[in-house]
Design goal:
By secondary structure, the protein is an alpha+beta fold. It contains ten helices and ten strands. Helix 5 runs parallel beside helix 10 and helix 8 packs antiparallel against helix 10.
Length: 330
């Protein structure tokens, strides 16, 4: 996790968004800027005078390096080239897809990376029948068949060391309440260390990383669309499957079976990876805490989450972690 830059987006308003996009692309925008819900980045809907609908994505400063974002864009372009249903970034006349906006503030300038994407709408996909779960598995299998064809050396690797890094950052940032801090860190570190051997010799490939059903749209007449590759990483294939399940794997064996059947239409799945699901859930919980901690200085976050980080918050988090550790059995 890169160093946080407090209030990084406070100077980013509609005027700056429009000027940044029009300064790179030969576009005439109608001046309407629609903010979209986004936990970490800032995402805006834009409209060209000709009716073209676009999405501008401004990446949180310090979260990803330029090389990391470029690997995300290259993966999307590669997936689109193999006709996997994704939204690839728009390139300028030189083919570049990542650009920089520099904003001045009292303590110095801040640089924000941004990209432009065509807007692709769709509805949420509520998997109910076996055929729905099969379709989801097939979509992930198609993505992974391309993901295994290349590498992303700048992106994060989904291993226990990844979770340890987030725990270290939470501690260094001092966001854990002092009454809970040592107990919370001890419990999490013990569990992460205990599950580490399960990841030995596990295959790694380029994956979505945050492949829950909210990041899959259904476009009538076209099929499923995979969106939001911001958390793209290198990791085990099962990471992009367990997030789709409605409950723990033991409680939804039918759905898991159909997911894997669809997946294996395109790529063989190593069943040993199923043992990683609950450890991965623990690691995701740790990641989510660190993810939210990155936003704690933003004005909108302080308004919406006034109790984030207080003692009661961390007591609840500790209990949730303990429940998950018991589920893992370590």
């Amino acid at each position: 996790m890169a160093p946080d830059q407090p209030g990084a987006f406070d100077l980013l308003g509609p005027r700056e968004v429009l000027a940044a996009v029009e300064g790179v692309f030969d576009l005439s925008l109608d001046g309407v800027v629609e903010p979209y819900a986004s936990y970490v980045n800032r995402v805006y809907g834009l409209h060209g005078d000709d009716g073209e609908r676009l999405v501008a994505k401004f990446y949180r400063p310090g979260r990803w390096t330029r090389e990391m974002i470029q690997e995300e864009h290259r993966f999307l372009e590669e997936l689109a080239g193999f006709e996997v249903p994704v939204v690839a970034p728009v390139g300028d006349e030189d083919g570049d897809t990542l650009f920089d906006l520099e904003l001045e503030r009292e303590n110095g300038a801040i640089e924000i990376h941004f990209g432009l994407f065509p807007r692709r709408g769709g509805r949420g996909f509520d998997a109910e029948q076996d055929s729905d779960w099969y379709r989801l598995g097939a979509a992930v299998g198609r993505m992974h068949a391309v993901g295994r064809r290349g590498e992303a050396p700048a992106r994060l690797q989904l291993t226990p060391a990844w979770a340890e890094g987030y725990l270290r950052r939470l501690d260094e940032e001092g966001v854990i309440h002092p009454d809970i801090r040592q107990e919370f860190l001890d419990e999490c570190r013990r569990a992460v260390e205990a599950v580490a051997p399960r990841f030995d010799d596990v295959g790694q490939l380029r994956i979505h990383g945050d492949c829950h059903r909210g990041n899959i749209l259904d476009r009538p007449g076209e099929g499923l669309l995979l969106i939001d590759f911001d958390d793209m990483m290198t990791g085990p294939a099962v990471q992009d499957l367990w997030l789709l399940l409605p409950d723990r794997a033991d409680n939804c064996r039918r759905e898991l079976t159909m997911l894997l059947d669809g997946y294996e239409e395109f790529l063989e799945f190593d069943r040993h990876e199923l043992a990683l699901i609950e450890p991965l859930r623990l690691m995701r919980m740790i990641h989510f805490l660190a993810w939210r901690a990155e936003q704690r200085h933003d004005h909108w976050f302080r308004r919406q989450e006034p109790e984030w980080g207080n003692r009661a918050f961390w007591v609840r988090e500790l209990e949730d972690m303990r429940d998950q550790i018991r589920a893992i059995g370590v």
